[in-house]
Structure formats: structure tokens, C-alpha cells
Amino acid sequence: MPRIQFYYAPGAVSLASHILLREVGVEFEAIANTVEADRVTFTPNFHQINPKMRIPVLILDGETITETPAIITAISNLVPEMNLLGKTNMERFKAYEWMNWLSGTLQDRGIGCLVRPERFSDDTVAWEGIRAKGLETIKKCFGEIEERLKGIHAVGDEYTAVDPYLFVFYRWGNDMGLKMEEYVKYTALVENVVERSAVKVALEFENIGTTLCRGWVSKAE
Q1: Mean pLDDT to the nearest integer, 53-65
Q2: Cβ atoms within 10 Å, residue 105
Q3: pTM of the entire structure?
Q4: CA dist., res. 5 & res. 41, Å (int)
Q5: pLDDT at 29 over 50
Q6: Residue 58 CB partners (closer than 8 Å, separation 6+)
Q7: What rounded mean pLDDT belongs to the chain?
Q8: What's the pLDDT at 211?
Q9: Sign (positive or negative) of CA dihedral 126, 127, 132, 135
Q10: Do 69 and 100 meet the contact criterion of CB atoms below 8 Å apart?
Q11: What pLDDT score was predicted for residue 209?
């Protein structure tokens, strides 16, 4: 196995990748960053590790990988026999469809607009409208997730990397005060996810709860 370093922040989107690292059972060095509502504290020289100044970051034998879909792919490929991206080509296509949509739409256009409106406009007057649009996008995405789910797994009939990725956003929805339990199929998926030992280990390591992430949504993603 390669030498692995993993840069994360407790409760951030990096949680999905952290869970997968625990799932595949590899040894890795976990390097924490602090993310709070009004400030982000990175480890020293983090800008040299990732000039985009975002987490998570995965380093495999000195090669830096950023962006959650890419990191999830790298981790899944460490133990390909676990089929964490699906068992068939079509399931793998669907896994990437989910991950790219979660990253590009729910996280960036939804969460990003809600918590970081300054990324989208320098005009402070526009920020409230951007936040409102972000929340609208988030709710729409949660509705689409509920509609797309056919069972307790997002892809096929077995656990894949998409499931813990969805779990992260469910936690954030609770933090926003949304009534996540109204998304019955989504809730069932999350209830299944949190029973996995890898998830329990990751949550305990980050010192966070299963479905609530009180006080902030990450501004470093």
C-alpha cells in the first residue's frame, strides 16, 4: 500500500473520504484542520499542499489529489475487490453521475451560495439573494435525492462510496434546521450508513455525531 496522508476537517465534506479510508482498512496519517463558522485554520504551509485552499486533500506516495470525486476514486481503487464504485460499468457510471452532481450542484451551487455568497459576488447587497437561492437549490436537491433513491443504497443493491457522500449532506441538512426525516428514503439510507463500523470509527475519531453537525457548515470545501 502507498504512504497516505489525509487532510480533513471534522464534519466537513472530507468526512465521506475519511469513512472510505476506514472502510478499506488502510493505514494513513490524518491531518486535521479547524473549520468554524467565522474562521478557517489550516495546517502550516497548506497553501503549498493545495493552492486552492480547500479540503479534503489526499496524498499518495507524494502525489497530491484534490476534489472529493477524485479522492473517492483513488481510495476505492486501493481495494478494487470491494467494488466501492459499483460492480458493473453501468453502476460505476451511475456512481460518477451521483458524485459529480453532489459536488457541482448540491455542494457548490447550494451549500456554497448559502454559506459563502462572497464567492459569487463582491456586491454585499446581493449576498442575501445568493443565500436564498442557495437554500432553494439545497431543498431542490434533497427532493431529487429522495426521488432518485430506490432503496437503502444509491447505486445498485450494495454499499458504495456514494452512500457516505450522501450521508454528509444529510447531516448538514439537519444542521440547517431542515426536516430531514421527511425524506423517508434518504433517511433510510443514512440509518443504514451509520450502522457500519467504519462510519462509527470515523465519527468517533472526528468527535462528531451521526446526523447533526451543530454550529457550522464547512467554508473550506
Answers
A1: 96
A2: 16
A3: 0.92
A4: 18
A5: yes
A6: 4, 5, 6, 7, 17, 64, 65, 66, 71, 74, 75
A7: 92
A8: 60
A9: positive
A10: yes
A11: 78
pLDDT above 70 covers what percent of the chain?
A: 93
Asked whether 114 and 53 are in contact (CB, 8 A), the reply is no
Degrees to nearest 5, angle at CA 33 with 31 and 36? 160
Query: Which single residue is written with the C-alpha cell 464547512?
Result: 218
CB within 8 A of 140, min separation 6: which ones?
Answer: none
Residue partners of 11: CB distance under 8 A and separation at least 6? 35, 171, 206, 208, 213, 216, 218
The three three-digit cell numbers of residue 38, written as one number: 467565522
- Across the strands, what pairs with 29? 5
Q: What pLDDT does residue 41 have?
A: 85
User: Residue 215 in contact with residue 37, Cβ under 8 Å?
Assistant: yes
Of 176, 178, 171, give the one whose Cα is nearest residue 206: 171
Local structure of 159: helix, strand or coil:
coil
pLDDT by residue (tens digit) across 72-118? 999 999 999 999 999 999 999 999 999 999 999 999 999 999 988 99
| Contact indicator for 50, 201 with CB cutoff of 8 Å | no
If you write DSSP's letter for every residue of 181-216 in order, what string do you get?
GG-HHHHHHHHHHTTSHHHHHHHHHHT--SS--TT-
Res 37: pLDDT: 57
